[in-house]
Write a structure and sequence with these properties.
alpha/beta; DNA internalization-related competence protein ComEC/Rec2; transmembrane; membrane
């Protein structure tokens, strides 16, 4: 069985290594070969891998067909379908999941139903379960491609979302405004928790709806390691199963002996688990927990005994077969990773000792095991935490040690009782109030962990992975028999550490990163592990490009603070994230072309040196109260001091217009730039032919959004650059562009085309 489940899992997970979808003939051939090996050698691993890969291919092809039914570029279509998201009109986010059953009068088969993430800012009465005819402006999923940060395209695949769009107009088709029972209960819960301090947390625990949590809430949960706790997770489903089984066993014991009541604990536990999963909308984590509960309950009831690893592998394979694309979501890896760590910890000896070995006070033994398990989770989950979140909370073990039992045994039961009695507002309100009060000490404790999040650089990942692997092997294997293995691991770790050091030691080089921030601008200049930022990208209520892109990229590279911040001008797409950058990245010095408190002037004539690079300000001639496009701070960055024989220069231009270009050309007739930031995102208002002829640049960098409403860059401007023979590098098509410069040599990396190769990317960007 283990070979079969392992093979199915490997086959499904091979999907992550496909750069394109292969022809089905490859899987037929693999199944024939695997079948031959099975019949000859009785090894079913290869046959299972082929079957798993074939099923993953079928799922990926089905997803691709649904995506291909949408236009490549943004277009208007009419759809009919059903609202699937819980709607909370008390929050600013108006996005919701809509499943389309017909498109332009064409009925879709059930398996072809299109799942869309839509935005309808003007709607006021949308509810889950309602059927609508919608006129929408739709596009395929598209996200920013950077070295770190949120991957919207991978999220779309993992969530089964085929497209995104905006509703232009809609007509309600449901009679009498029909909505789902879950939405009715949710609306009552929203009303009954009005004015509660931790209303958003209560709704997350009761209905799995976390859209009400703001940026500050997420920061608290991240720093404290409690994000997994404030939702309907596998832990809470398991708690409900235990409660249901216990109640069923007691009721069965009180009833007369009869075969009719034999399965009462099983069915009651399953019913409660199913109900709690229904409250969460059968999200992927609750589906896994429900499947695990059913299997474990059946084993208990039927007296079947499996090892922990067998059970884990069967459930993993089952979840992957049910939804192969779920492997693109963090939840699957974190939940199964945590369970595997607990199994390894138990195998390694972290468990309650036998009665003869126990200390005199039994609760101390429980605390000992509990603390060791938290430490094991902290250490062994480190690689997964880094892959998905770029770091780990050092305070998580202590916070979880205290918060998990309290929330599980006090808060969650109160929330469940509040939901069960939701039709009796007076009684339900009492339980909601108790649950809210119970969260006060939890959030207060979590707030103490502010700043405990430890971002880990990319250079440390291989070392950390090797260390975790070595710890597990040395922990589980007899060390006396495997002394040579441990010595080899120590040497390997030492070698990997030296390898990482050799990769980062490059004294003559420097790097320019044009980050993919959509319509806006953010450019990092790095050398010797230090960085300067030119512009911050845009911001929005509750977030900014500084938080979602700039900070994660810097943290990934091991940089925690900026040496400097330069603002070209005051437009929101260039300076919107200033407050977040100054608060989170603490730049040592600040410069701008307008009058800002704490900022030094960035005007013509200013010159400074940083890490061997020369920063020379060429424009504007004087400082203004509020800098508009023509007042953008233009800076020439040169490495002439580092490489006097083959220097390279970068020209940062902000959003200067044609008049500014002409004036600057007169002031600097000998100005040259190897790397040119295309002014104003490639707008027709800039990039005159005279300007380009004088610069004699080699590379043209343009920061633009794929679906920008301003349709930038302009085609004729792009054509002008291409006719000059420049290498055109655009974030809308290439993602983050990194240029490593050393002694006149420029090595370009385009993160969308050079660093990311997945089968689903051509679907989103042909």
């Amino acid at each position: 069985m283990f070979q079969m489940t392992a093979g199915l899992s490997i086959g499904v997970l091979s999907l992550h290594y496909w750069q394109s979808l292969p022809d089905y003939k490859w899987f037929i051939t693999a199944m024939i070969i695997g079948g031959a090996i099975f019949f000859c050698l009785r090894i079913n691993l290869f046959l299972a891998i082929a079957i798993g890969g074939l099923w993953a291919w079928v799922t990926a092809v089905d997803y691709s067909k649904a995506v291909n039914s949408l236009p490549h570029e943004r277009g208007n279509i009419t759809i009919v379908g059903e609202v699937r998201s819980l709607i909370n009109h008390n929050i600013l986010d108006k996005r919701f999941i809509f499943v389309a059953e017909s498109v332009k009068e064409r009925d879709l088969l059930r398996k072809d139903a299109i799942r869309l993430l839509l935005d309808w800012p003007a709607v006021t009465d949308l509810k889950q379960g309602q059927r609508y005819q919608l006129d929408i402006r739709v596009r395929r999923p598209n996200g920013r491609a950077n070295a770190a940060g949120f991957d919207a395209e991978r999220y779309a695949v993992g969530s089964g979302i085929h497209g995104t769009g905006t509703v232009i107009a809609g007509t309600l088709l449901s009679q009498n405004g029909t909505m789902s029972l879950r939405q009715r209960w949710f609306d009552r819960a929203v009303q009954q928790t009005d004015g509660f301090t931790y209303r958003a947390y209560l709704l997350a625990l009761g209905f799995g709806e976390r859209d009400g949590l703001d940026q500050d809430d997420w920061s608290i949960l991240r720093d404290s390691g409690l994000a997994h706790l404030m939702a309907i997770s596998g832990l809470h489903i398991g708690l409900v199963v235990v409660i249901g089984w216990g109640i069923g066993s007691r009721v069965r014991g009180a009833l007369p002996e009869s075969g009719y009541w034999l399965w009462l604990p099983f069915w009651l536990a399953l019913l409660l688990a199913y109900g709690y999963a229904w409250l969460a909308g059968f999200s992927i984590p609750t589906q896994r927990a429900l499947l695990t509960s059913v299997l474990c309950l059946l084993m208990i009831r039927c007296g079947v005994v499996w090892s922990g690893l067998q059970l884990w592998s069967v459930i993993l394979a089952s979840c992957l077969i049910l939804n192969p694309l779920a492997s693109y979501s963090a939840g699957l890896w974190l939940s199964f990773g945590a369970v595997l760590v607990l199994y390894l910890a138990n195998t390694g000896g972290i468990r309650r000792r036998k009665q003869a070995e126990q200390v005199r006070v039994p609760w101390r033994e429980t605390v000992r095991v509990y603390v060791l398990l938290q430490l094991a989770l902290l250490g062994l989950m480190l690689p997964l935490q880094w892959v998905w979140f770029g770091g780990i909370s050092l305070a998580a073990p202590l916070i979880n040690l205290l918060a998990v039992p309290w929330v599980s045994l006090v808060t969650v039961p109160c929330v469940l009782l509040a939901v069960v009695t939701i039709t009796v507002p007076g009684l339900s309100g009492v339980f909601w109030q108790l649950a809210d009060w119970s969260l006060h000490p939890v959030i207060a404790l979590a707030s103490l962990a502010e700043g405990a999040w430890w971002p880990l650089s990319e250079s440390l990942f291989i070392v950390l992975l090797a260390m975790v692997t070595g710890i597990v092997l040395c922990w589980l294997l007899p060390w006396r028999r495997f002394l040579s293995l441990q010595v080899s691991l120590v040497l390997a770790l030492w070698g990997v550490s030296d390898w990482n050091k050799s990769q980062t030691l490059d004294p003559d080089s420097w790097q320019v990163d044009m980050l993919d921030v959509g319509h806006g601008l953010a450019i990092l200049i790095q050398r010797q592990g230090r960085a300067v930022l030119y512009d911050t990208g845009n911001s929005w209520p509750g977030g900014s490009m500084a938080l979602s892109v700039i900070e994660p990229v810097l943290r990934r590279q091991g940089i925690r603070h900026l040496d400097g911040l330069i603002l070209s001008h005051a437009d929101a797409d260039h300076a919107g994230g200033t407050s977040d950058v100054t608060a989170r990245l603490n730049p040592a010095w600040l410069r701008s072309s307008d009058k800002r408190e704490g900022f030094a002037p960035c005007v013509r004539g200013r010159l400074w040196h940083w890490q061997g690079l020369t920063f020379k300000v060429l424009w504007p001639p004087k400082r203004v109260t509020k800098a508009a496009n023509p007042h953008s701070c233009v800076i020439q960055v040169s490495d002439q001091w580092l490489n006097p024989e083959s220097d390279t220069s970068l020209l940062l231009t902000g959003d200067i217009d044609a008049i500014s270009e002409l004036l600057l050309a007169r002031l600097e007739p000998d100005l040259k730039a190897d790397i040119l930031l295309v002014p104003h995102h490639g707008s027709n208002s800039s990039s005159t032919q005279t300007w380009l002829d004088s610069l004699q640049a080699t590379y043209a960098l343009v920061s633009a959004g794929k679906y920008s409403p301003w349709a930038l860059p302009a085609e004729q401007v792009k054509h002008r650059y291409l006719m000059q023979g420049l290498h055109w590098l655009e974030t809308a098509e290439d993602g983050q562009v990194s240029m490593r410069i050393e002694q006149g040599e420029v090595v370009v990396t385009r993160y969308r085309k050079d660093s990311q190769r997945h089968w689903y990317q051509p679907l989103f960007r042909p």
